[in-house]
Automatic annotation (TrEMBL):
Protein name: Allophanate hydrolase
UniProt entry tagged with the keyword Ribosomal protein: no
UniProt source species: Streptomyces canarius
Stretches assigned to the Carboxyltransferase domain: 27-289
Alphabetical UniProt keywords: ATP-binding, Hydrolase, Nucleotide-binding
One GO MF term attached to the UniProt entry: hydrolase activity
Gene3D superfamilies assigned: Cyclophilin-like
Pfam families with a match to the protein in the record: CT_A_B
InterPro entries in the cross-refs: CT_A_B, Cyclophilin-like_dom_sf, PxpC
Length: 289
């Protein structure tokens, strides 16, 4: 039994292992996966001295609790939340030493949705196709954490950052998503094409790692029937039969038969990972590059 390990005491609503994902396998039907907020994941890795591709934990809404078998350095970022070590308050957004056997508690998010927990050395579960990421759609990678799960850790790669705290973006009060129209905007009426970038939408509680679902006006089709399945990309705004746009996130399917009315700029997707249900959403059109 190695002492370089974490024991999951409380798994929370949904805690998964994530890294940069597995891009480049869409032709095999394998989604990209990876951290929904890659900027937050990279930052907490930097705070503990890990390389940016080290695997971290991604929590959802109510955090998790972990007990290391040896003394480790951790950092918690992403969604703001209380952090405690051995029952005592600890820093969020900064390196924290957790002695062997002490309980690290990552509390419920006070804003946003997903917190990220980096541990010096990274989570060293077995990689699949070059990534340790949990993919909820394909089932690749480790299963979502459950109470009692033991996670192996790698050897620390470098010293933690010498900071008292690192600035991080606030979760969005309004989610503004820049979109490039198409490729299937001609499947919708002129009114629908106008509505998607002028009407009010909100984040649906049915959102998950596969897609951010919206509530708002239904977009009317100009064509009947369905498309043959075609390739889907990260950020695609697909419109299912109910007419409400869905923004594809990291665990999205690699193909789909519903028309894509627009595609969100990749730079805007980390904010989507932190948008709570009910958050207003605006799709802002931009020119094709």
């Amino acid at each position: 039994m190695t002492d370089r390990a974490l024991v999951v005491v409380r798994a929370g609503a949904l805690t998964t292992v994530q890294d940069r994902g597995r891009p480049g396998y869409a032709h095999l039907g394998v989604p990209r996966s990876g951290a929904l907020d890659p900027l937050a994941a990279a930052l907490v890795n930097r705070l503990v001295g890990n390389p940016p591709d080290a695997a971290v934990l991604e929590t959802t809404l109510n955090g998790c609790a972990l007990r290391p078998r040896s003394t480790v350095t951790v950092a918690v970022g992403g969604a703001p939340c209380p952090v405690a070590v051995g029952g005592r308050p600890a820093a969020w957004g900064a390196p924290v030493v957790v002695p062997a056997g002490e309980l690290l508690e990552v509390g419920a998010a006070t804003a946003g949705v997903r917190a990220y927990v980096a541990v010096g050395g990274g989570v060293a579960v077995e990689p699949v196709l070059g990534s340790r990421a949990t993919d909820l759609l394909s089932g690749l990678g480790p299963a979502p954490l459950t109470d009692g799960t033991v996670l192996p850790l790698g050897a620390p790669a470098g010293p933690p950052a010498r900071v008292d705290g690192a600035p991080q973006p606030c979760p969005p009060a309004e989610l503004v998503l820049r979109v490039t129209p198409g490729p299937r905007d001609d499947w919708f009426t002129a009114r629908a094409v106008r509505d998607v970038t002028t009407r009010a939408y909100r984040v649906s509680a049915a959102s998950n790692r596969i897609g951010l679902r919206t509530e708002g006006p239904a977009l009317e089709r100009a064509r009947t029937g369905e498309l043959p399945s075609e390739g889907m990309v990260l950020g695609a705004v697909q419109v299912p039969p109910d007419g409400r746009p869905v923004v594809f996130l990291a665990d999205h399917p690699t193909t789909g038969g519903y028309p894509v009315i627009a595609v969100v700029r990749a730079a805007d997707l980390p904010a989507a990972a932190q948008a709570l249900p009910g958050t207003p959403v605006r799709f802002v059109p931009v020119r094709r590059r």
